[in-house]
Amino acid sequence: MLKFTFGGVPVEIWFAPSFSIKTTDKRIEMLFRKAKIETYDPLKKKIREVRPSRSEFEAYLYLEEIKNRVPELKIELEEYPPLPTSRDKENKDAPILE
């Protein structure tokens, strides 16, 4: 589950059993259902198109890209899935996401 504020509006996104979004602003809901953006994927080490409705990781990448492109939105992540880091002992090939 992803939990964040988007321009001051609280938003929650679930991916089990299917994509579901909870917010009071329908414009934000439509943005996350239909939008796609090109951003750098540190796992694949290339720029690719991500859609926030595909997976938690893609939604996280989408939010980080929007946060960098439009800082006026004041996106604040409150709860998100654990992400691989360079400090993971099990995965020596994990990218640096810190």
| C-alpha-based Rg, rounded | 14 Å
Q: What is the average per-residue confidence, as pLDDT, rounded to a whole number? A: 84
The outline comes out as globular
Task: State the secondary-structure class.
Answer: alpha+beta
Helix content: 10-25%
The end-to-end distance, rounded to whole angstroms, is 20 Å
**SSE pattern:** EEEHEEHE
Question: Strand arrangement, largest sheet?
Answer: 3-2-1-6
Number of strands: 6
Largest sheet: 4 strands, antiparallel
* Fraction in beta strands: 25-35%
Low-confidence stretches: none
Describe the structure in your own words.
Helix content is 23%, strand content 30%. A 4-stranded antiparallel β-sheet has the order 3-2-1-6, with helices on one face. Strands 4-5 form a two-stranded antiparallel ribbon. The protein has 2 helices and 6 strands. The two termini are 20 Å apart. It is globular, with a radius of gyration of 14 Å. The chain has helices at 26-34, 56-69, and strands at residues 2-6, 9-14, 20-23, 37-41, 46-50, 76-79.
Keywords:
single chain, 98 residues, alpha+beta, four-stranded antiparallel sheet, two-stranded antiparallel sheet, 2 helices, 23% helix, 30% strand, globular
Topology (SSEs and partners):
Elements lengths: L1 E5 L2 E6 L5 E4 L2 H9 L2 E5 L4 E5 L5 H14 L6 E4 L19
Antiparallel strand pairs: 1-2, 1-6, 2-3, 4-5
Question: Quick recap of the structure?
Answer:
The protein has 98 residues and is an alpha+beta fold. The protein has two helices and six strands.
